[in-house]
Design brief:
Blueprint (H helix, E strand, L loop, with lengths): L2 H17 L13 E5 L6 H4 L3 H13 L3 E5 H7 L4 H10 L9 E3 L2 E3 L1
Antiparallel strand pairs: 1-2, 3-4
Helix pairs in contact: 1-3
Length: about 110
């Protein structure tokens, strides 16, 4: 990918991070943030798309209301489940909505 395309994608990612609050939707951390679809869309946008196409994919998800900012840990816990199923499971486990401390693979969020 051309340097200009990478720079454009980086700026677009930063704008999305800002629009989504610049912190993890679930735990509030500002470290190691990722873009995550509420309703999973498969992983083709990770495997087959360059950064420019990937950012266009995320913008479409943002406009559809299907995008959240999550840290690596929370994104890993949510996995391929829908946002509703993820939070229903958290409530059933006794976690308060959007506040928790957990450690997975040596990463901790609080």
């Amino acid at each position: 990918m051309a340097r200009r395309d990478k720079e454009w994608a980086r700026k677009q990612r930063n704008i999305l991070h800002w629009l989504l609050g610049s912190k993890c939707y679930d735990c509030g951390t500002v470290e190691k943030l990722t873009l995550d679809c509420d309703e999973p869309q498969g992983d083709a946008h990770h495997r087959k798309m360059g950064w420019d196409c990937r950012m266009r994919f995320y913008w479409r998800q943002y406009y559809r209301g299907n995008l959240k900012l999550r840290c690596l840990t929370c994104n890993g816990i949510k996995g391929g489940s829908t946002d509703k199923a993820y939070h229903a499971g958290r409530r059933a486990a006794g976690y308060a909505s959007h506040t928790h401390t957990h450690t997975i693979r040596g990463l901790q969020c609080s």
